[in-house]
Structures are given as C-alpha cells and as structure tokens.
Amino acid sequence: MAACANTILLDFKVESSSLTQDGFNKLEMEVIEGLEKHFGVNSMEKLMVKTLSSEGDHLSVFMGPQQSVINLRTFSNGLVSIIIDYLKEGDEEPLLTTLDGKALELALGKLGKDMKSVTLPPIKRGTPFDIYFPLSDGRLVEYDVDKLIYDEKSPFQRVQIMHSKTFGNMLVLDGLPNLAESDLVYTESIMCRGTEDYKDKEILILGGGDGALLNELRKENPKQIDEMVMKICKEHLRSACGDTLDSYIGKNYQIIVGDCIKYMEKCVFQGKKFDYVISDLTDLPISETPQGKMWELIRKVIRMSFSVLNDTGKFLQHGTGISCTNQLAMFEGVVGELEIPLSFTRTHAFVPSFLEDWVFYQIQRKAA
Amino acid sequence: MAACANTILLDFKVESSSLTQDGFNKLEMEVIEGLEKHFGVNSMEKLMVKTLSSEGDHLSVFMGPQQSVINLRTFSNGLVSIIIDYLKEGDEEPLLTTLDGKALELALGKLGKDMKSVTLPPIKRGTPFDIYFPLSDGRLVEYDVDKLIYDEKSPFQRVQIMHSKTFGNMLVLDGLPNLAESDLVYTESIMCRGTEDYKDKEILILGGGDGALLNELRKENPKQIDEMVMKICKEHLRSACGDTLDSYIGKNYQIIVGDCIKYMEKCVFQGKKFDYVISDLTDLPISETPQGKMWELIRKVIRMSFSVLNDTGKFLQHGTGISCTNQLAMFEGVVGELEIPLSFTRTHAFVPSFLEDWVFYQIQRKAA
Predict the structure, then answer these.
(1) Which residues sit opposite B40 in a β-bridge?
(2) Which of the four pLDDT bands, split at 50, 70 and 90, describes residue B40?
(3) Residue A260: which domain range?
(4) Is residue B226 annotated as part of the catalytic site, yes or no?
C-alpha cells in the first residue's frame, strides 16, 4: 500500500472536576511521559496550549516523531482524547501498533477513574482507493479491499469494481457497495427462491444491471424476462451474472437499456401484462419524511408496476438495512397509502458484502 | 445516546508541488472560506500555524463552533486532511451532517487536482459502551450496539453481553465479539453438521462456554459429551444455547468447569478415549512467528487431544478470518510439524456477527 495518513484515536475518562487548569497541567505531563516512554525521551515538541472554556475544555498540540501531530484534548464531561496523525509510508513500521496502544491505554488509563480506555485501529486516509464504506444507517466499516479493478464515470454515476479478500469482486456505484460475488443470498432473497414459482411466467426486472437476478431467474425456466440495465458487469462479476449479459437477447429474455418508466408506459399502451415485476433499483432514500424526488420515483415505480401486472401479479423489491427502522416504516406507509389497495409481506436475509441484515418486500393487490 | 466526542475526518489531494508556504496560505484561506460557509462567517478562530517541514508539511489549528477543534494538515505527498473534533450532546444536531460533508467535499475538492475527496462518518468516542470492534485482521467496524446488558470482570477476562440491532445479543470477551444469537452458522461449521455423524459418539468440547456448540450437538444424539466452561450465557444467549446450560449434568452430557489440559491428562491416565475433540478455545494469536505462550498452548491442546482421541478420531477447531493468511499458514505449519503425523482439511463460512468469512479445521491422524 502506498503512503497514507494514519489517524490514531485514543481516549479515556477522568473526573470532570479534576480538569481545572492545574489538573490539566498535571494530566498533560503524565500523557507526555506516557507517550515518550514509547516514542523516546524528548521526542515531543509542544506547539501550543489553550484553554477553550472554563468548564474543563483544554487543548495542547504537539509535534511527535515522524512529523506526527498530536492533539491532547479534554472535554467538559471528563473525556480525554488523544489524536495522533502522521504520514505512514507503505513499508514503514506503524508509529503505534495495536499492542503499543494497549500498553499506552494501561499507562494512561491509570489516570482515569475507571481505567476504561479505548484505542481504535488507525484510520487510514489518502489511500489509493476507498476502503471505508458507510452501511445503510451511516455506520463506518473498513473493508478488506486490496485492488481497484475498474473505475469510470458513466453519464449517470461512478462505476467501480473493487476486489475484496472476503467478498470477491464488488460492484460499487457512487461510493456505495452494490453487489459482490459473495451475495447470491441477495438475489435469492429478492426473488423469493423456493417460494415463488417462475416456470412459464412473464417477468419484468427493473434495474438489476449487474445481471445476477436475471442469471438466477433464467435457471427457473420462465416464459420471458425483460430487463433494463444501465451498466454491465459481465466481465468482473461473472460468478454472479454468468453468461447472462453476453447477449442482450436470449431464448427467453431481452435486455433493454433505457428508462424503465417509459418502457412500462409502452407496455400499458400495448396491453402487455406480467406475472412478476422485480424492482432492483436504488436503495430507499434516507430522509426525514417520505417526500422529495426519490420518494416520488418510488411511488411512480410501484404505480406503473401494478399497471403492467396482472390481477394476481407480484411486485418484489428490496428495502434497506434492518436497523433503518424509520426508512422501512416510511416505505410501508407509502405502500399502504397508494390509491391501489396493496398488501405486503417482508423477509430479511444477511447479505455478506452489505454486512447487514437486508429487508425484502413482496407486494400484491389486496383481494377484492 | 449520551454526550460523546465526534471526530470528523475529511481529506483530499492537491499537487504536492503547490504546498509551498504561499501555496499553503492560499489553501488555508480557501478551506476557512469553505468551512465558514457552513459554520457561519467569522466562526473560526485561528489558534496556531506551523510549518512542520519544508517538504509541504503544514499545520493550522482552529477553534470552531461548539468548541470544536479543527486541524488543517498538509502532507508532503499532497494529501490535505481536516480533522474536526467536538463534543456532541446526545440530542444535538451534528456539526456537520453527511450531506454537509459531501457539499464541503465538492467545495474543497475544487482545490484538488482530481476532485477525489472523502468524508468519513464521524468517529464517536467516549460512548457509554464500545461500538467499534476490530476484525481478526485489525480492520475497524462500527457495530449497531444499542444496549450494554451485562458487564463484569471474571478472574480471567472481561465478560460483556451487548445487544446489536442486527445480531441480537452478543457475547464480548475482553473487547472481542465472541458469539451472537445470529451465529448458528459458526456452530454448524465448527461441528461440520451434515458431514459428521455424532450418533452414539463420545465427544469432548474444549472451551465453548457459550453453550451453543453443546446445544447443537445434543440434537445429534451423541453418547456422551464433556464440556468445560468458564462462563455461562444461559440467560442472555438463550436462543443460541437453549436450556443446555441450565444443568451441568444432563442425560448425555457433563459440563466441567476447570482446566481442559488437566482434564485431558486425567483421561489419559484413566484410558478414556473420544471420537471427537472440538476445540472452541481462543482465536489464533496474531504474531510474526508461531512462537510464544499462545502458540505453545495451541500445540499442547492438539497433542493432548490426540492422546485422548481414538485412532480414527477427529479434532475440530476454528481458525480465524480468511484474510489472515499469515496466521492460517502458521497454524497449518504447526499442525504439519507436530511429532504425530496429522493431515487436515479446512472449510469456511461467513459468520454474521464476525462480519468475516471464518476458517474451520478438521484434523486427523494420517493413515499408517
């Protein structure tokens, strides 16, 4: 790995009442002593010290070895935070290993009232490709990405294929993991494999540009599948999509690159009906209310889908991570409030590369 | 959530040749302007500025709104890093939302040569309980822990039960996730369910204090199981261990709290033999070479296990995350170099709460 900035975060708690000016001076001395035990005597140069508020907010900034910048910060609630930031060359020993961090925690923790201290693995920044991705609820995860295989901007989005040691090749759209070779369970969950019978059925897939869904559906002998794709993964996600994307017209499927709303309008006009519409479009938007452009699109897709589904037809779509309870409730509200009376069931499955339990919906017309 | 420190990390790249003193002054002005667009005019007070080296290493420190401390740092390779650190009250609006971060990225990214910029979700520190855990290869993951249910120090280790929205109750030993209610696949993988036939067999489990392994083995009608446990999870991991830990002696099992090496020595003395020994003890140690106390223990456990296994008996044990290729190779070397000729197979399975593909070993005496 090339040079990247490493940010090491350590923290522990002291009695907030101890953070007077004198108390902070004493703490600062002990922290310097603790750090210099690891970095070497006189390895730290004090750059500044400042009292930020009279309620225990203090800041000292130091320069340490390898041009590291070290912030020692105390907060009014007794939290003591040390941030060490430096440029680590790829083959260089880390300034502080996890074990050093543990030792330092023990040394510094003695200052704290309950010895509770935390050293996080270094946060790496300026890496040649992204290794941190947020989960659906905004949590941070460091992936074991070791290679960037493809990186281009399409007219619609940034398309990347990254290799993860754990998940194989991953499709990343606009910085969000979309599907990896490890994720057959995603495809099987959205299509309800084992529950739904696709034999001789008419199926319309919206989205699903990675080809995985079409690839699995083809194994179930459906009558006909139409699919609209934005971007093909036939080269780099081959274990997921098989040979499905090699040809846009197959024995029992057709891939249409275009706007899925317009295609469905054409189907309405021609009176074409489907048994299943499977929507593999974008995730549920994160928002305070189910309003805005993205939610309008979701409503439109559901309405249009039911206008091309036959009376007992099913609309299948993925939701989002199970911990996003607000988003899921909003989506269920949207489904319940449409002018077509609809009922839904939901399932969930842990999708490896998402690192989350993911929710899937099965939506039908209410029986008259 | 109570007040905790939030650390927001932003970074982007500029031409390293532009980081002269003048170049840095210009960059600093644009960063202040960009940040004050979000924080308000004159919301930032400069505390210090320093050139750390003549190769483009500069540092400015500011105080921003809500007593935030803002480090603007440039590195010799052209990386520009902004660290914003402040105390966020539980119900307070974040100083910078993900969307603000994205907007700021765009504004600041214009300074950079290729617009590549990254804002990470805030790192939360001083939280009432840990929410970050390292994976086996040291990667950082933020878990969706929302409750600390149990937290005590035993004579041997710190024992915590935490509730995760995704994984249910999790057993955390000395800060490392051990088993969660979501992890039946771990138990089924270590015992090779479906491949091994436990009917009327003699089984010895080493470790396995969570009771999950014993609980699943009991369903396979073995003749007898002995188990040594350090700590019971019968209350909080009940969906994993069932009623297995309610009684230490059952129809076909016995739980022994004690040192498993000593117990095996006793078995050797008494001539007692087993068909399976399943070792659910600690993870493979992270080390440069397969030496040291922990590796000696691993050797000892394997040796002792084969001294109580009958000739065709199997030793089953978990390894570590699949991305820890060094640790796995060391373990396989250790197995291959013991004085007893052994052969092994390995399987792997993605364990939900570990967020990793985990390796499991099946070890046997080589056929004579």
Answers:
(1) none
(2) confident
(3) 184-365
(4) no
